[in-house]
């Protein structure tokens, strides 16, 4: 079997998320600096804690956006490790029936022998040819595994 390792991470969504997180943090920081003086018609006034709370909300929002940079797929001769936005899975090739990337689907998925589909958010249609190459690489590793099970030394 091949000793190659395939690692795939989404490209476009990561760029969008980093820019969005930075923009959100800047906007919340600017809003925080504008929170001074009275609260309008009421008797309250904005305090330093209000400004810090606004910056803190910006930080939490930015971290929430950055969760979408988390997806990754790493595959080798033993199996596939899929890390999505929430949750991770490590699967040996023995439980995987195939690698799917259906037309119109937002991302690729692993078809398992128990008829489940495991989405691989790292292989996004938005990444176009890069995602297609990732799916092809996974399929080659899967074929190499199937060939090794059949006793065929050369993968198809």
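^ Assign residues to that structure.
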């Amino acid at each position: 079997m091949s000793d190659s390792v395939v690692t795939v991470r989404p490209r476009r969504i990561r760029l969008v998320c980093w820019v969005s997180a930075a923009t959100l943090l800047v906007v919340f920081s600017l809003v925080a600096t504008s929170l001074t003086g009275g609260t309008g018609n009421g008797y309250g006034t904005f305090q330093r804690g209000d400004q810090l709370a606004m910056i803190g909300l910006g930080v939490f929002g930015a971290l929430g956006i950055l969760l979408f940079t988390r997806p990754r797929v790493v595959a080798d001769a033993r199996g596939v490790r899929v890390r999505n936005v929430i949750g991770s899975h490590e699967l040996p090739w023995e439980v995987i029936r195939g690698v799917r990337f259906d037309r119109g689907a937002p991302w690729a998925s692993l078809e398992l022998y128990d008829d489940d589909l495991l989405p691989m958010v790292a292989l996004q249609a938005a990444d176009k040819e890069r995602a297609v190459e990732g799916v092809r690489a996974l399929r080659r590793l899967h074929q190499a595994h199937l060939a090794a099970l059949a006793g065929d030394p050369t993968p198809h």
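The first strand starts at residue 6 and ends at 8.
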